[in-house]
Design goal:
elongated; alpha/beta; about 260 residues; about 10% strand; 5 strands
Length: about 260
């Protein structure tokens, strides 16, 4: 492995690059912003390539490469790695991008899925990427979402949003039901979305009533986590809601009068 300046014209983007959606995260920093930063401060991290004949296949650093291309760089510093198989390229690209908030969740899901196709073992994928099996499974489940819901996924959803969308995909196999349920719960926080979807038990007809109950403040997701929602009477829930509306703290609610 060596680092040297290579000609931009000799670089091709690998099909195994994990990042496909370059617009993801653009609300934070788009290519123009990155190009301006490179223009002012220089390229702080080299890209990673593998040499194939007279060309270099770009494995890691696609946004940096495109930003430098916008700046009309003739050469770019690059780490030249030894040859390996395509899925190893994918692992390298995924590891580079996996902890970035601006990588499309669907790109992550596809990359995890491709690695699983090779290893047939989520534990091995976890070992290769340093990401927990639980998280990997959540992302892969996003690929079972209706295409129009995958299109709506973006980095502004955050971790909680991914949890809710993964649960939606696991709970409803029908894409029609997925879209219908998502449209019903999309105004809630991710945790509340997950709670409603979980309580529906895969029956889309239950969702409207659950949404109504959630809007009335019946579900406190922290308390529901411990099963208190089911243990408390309706009157007790109403009383707690009234006290919360009055600005009472939890300590005050629990203190004897």
């Amino acid at each position: 492995m060596e680092v040297k300046d290579i000609e931009m014209s000799k670089i091709v983007i690998s099909q195994q690059n994990a990042r496909k959606d370059l617009t993801a995260g653009s609300e934070d920093a788009n290519l123009d912003d990155l190009a301006n930063s490179i223009k002012e401060k220089g390229l702080l991290s080299p890209i990673t390539v593998i040499q194939k004949g007279d060309l270099y296949e770009l494995i890691v650093g696609q946004r940096r490469y495109l930003a430098c291309k916008k700046l009309e760089f003739k050469k770019i510093p690059a780490i030249i790695r030894d040859k390996s198989d395509d899925t190893d390229y994918l692992a390298l690209s995924l590891i580079e991008n996996i902890h970035r908030s601006d990588m499309s969740p669907v790109d992550k899901a596809r990359a995890y899925s491709s690695l699983f196709d090779k290893y047939k073992d989520y534990s091995q994928v976890s070992k290769e990427t340093g990401v927990s099996v639980v998280t990997i499974r959540k992302y892969v489940k996003l690929l079972d979402l209706a295409p129009q819901l995958q299109d709506r996924l973006n980095t502004s959803e955050g971790v909680v949003g991914i949890d809710a969308m993964s649960r939606l995909s696991s709970t409803f196999s029908s894409t029609e039901d997925q879209v219908k349920v998502f449209d019903s719960v999309k105004g809630f926080t991710g945790k509340m979305q997950s709670e409603i979807i979980k309580r529906s038990e895969g029956d889309a007809s239950k969702v409207p009533e659950l949404v109504e109950r959630a809007m009335q403040g019946e579900f406190n997701v922290t308390m529901c986590h411990y099963g208190f929602c089911d243990l408390m009477s309706g009157k007790l829930k109403e009383r707690i809601s009234e006290l919360i509306d009055q600005g009472k703290s939890l300590d005050e609610l629990l203190s004897p009068s």
